[in-house]
Amino acid sequence: MHVLEPLQQIENLAALNKAAGDPMRLQVLQLLEQDSFGVLELAGIFDVSQSRMSHHLKILANVQLVSTQREGNSIFYRRALLNDNELDPVRSEIFKAVDNMVWNKELEAGLQSIYAERGAQSQTFFEKHAGQFTEVTDLIAGYDHYAESLEEILKAIELPNHASAMEVGPGQGGFLKPLSERFHQVYALDNSPAMLELAKQHCTQGNVEFVLGTPQQAVEQNIRVDVLAFNMVLHHIPTPADVLNACFELLNPGGSLLITDLCPHEQNWVKESCGDVWLGLDPDNIKQWANDAQLDAQHQVFVGLRNGFQIQIQQFIKRH
């Protein structure tokens, strides 16, 4: 770790404290614990101009309280990851302080409006393009591209008798077959009727039950499983962190979560062609969301794909 001169250390600490000394900026940091947002989204949630929100974000970025990631033509903001910087203990205390404060309910309507807009766009895409979806995704990361690595991890998981599993967003059902061979009961969950029907057409296994809904709705139905899988799905979900919290509720104690997804990339065409909400997901972000949801990282595998895409497979275990 590079050690700064004493005066520079003091100046940096002063700048950090000054950046955290504004009520709106603290609320932005509180909100960014949940998700990543674009400047227009944040301006809408806080009902301020884009220029004003950009000014606040620039101040937060200058002291490494937030970082940026490009999503196509937009820049999204998230909390900065702590990486042993000299002032990271101070940043950590700032994050802890805002997390312990009560959420401003006046901002809830704006937040839910953003989530509803993201979700509606994604679901509309799948309802409209279910028939052609697999043809496009196969060009990027069809199940065959990562099946061997994923199934190796699956085979290594120790399971109780009469174990159950769930795949969220099963597509054409490629992973449902190995799941049905390993598990007593398998659930195929999707919030798109068209996509769920597509999976039914390609799946003949008798121990697979098809369920319409979201992970949060499956929790409400008291469904619990020993293995939960998301294959190329999380980057379609507007609120990945919230979904991982639902995963904790869906899993039995000691159960495994398997996430297969694209690493970050800059190929914006997939938003229109595949309905992607995010241009891949940072492995460290997924680990942080999982840790916050009381899921411990176990295994991680990276698979290179054609056309410049790379896939990640991560396994997490629910804490007892």
Major sheet characteristics:
7 strands, mixed
Helix content: 40-55%
- Which class do the helix and strand fractions yield? alpha/beta
Arithmetic mean of pLDDT: 87
Overall morphology? globular
Which spans have pLDDT < 50 for at least 5 consecutive residues? none
Model description:
There is one protein chain. The chain has helices at 6-19, 23-32, 39-46, 50-62, 88-99, 108-141, 143-156, 176-182, 193-202, 215-220, 240-250, 269-274, 283-292; strands spanning 37-38, 66-71, 74-79, 164-168, 185-190, 208-212, 225-231, 251-262, 295-304, 310-318. The protein is an alpha/beta fold and 320 residues long. The chain folds into two domains: 6-103, Arc Repressor Mutant, subunit A (Orthogonal Bundle), CATH 1.10.10.10; 120-318, Vaccinia Virus protein VP39 (Rossmann fold, 3-Layer(aba) Sandwich), CATH 3.40.50. The strands form two sheets. It has a seven-stranded mixed β-sheet with strand order 6-5-4-7-8-10-9, with helices on both faces. Strands 1-3-2 form a three-stranded antiparallel β-sheet. A hairpin with a 5-residue loop joins strand 9 (295-304) and strand 10 (310-318). The protein starts with 5 loop residues before the first helix and ends with a strand. The model has no long low-confidence stretch (mean pLDDT 87).
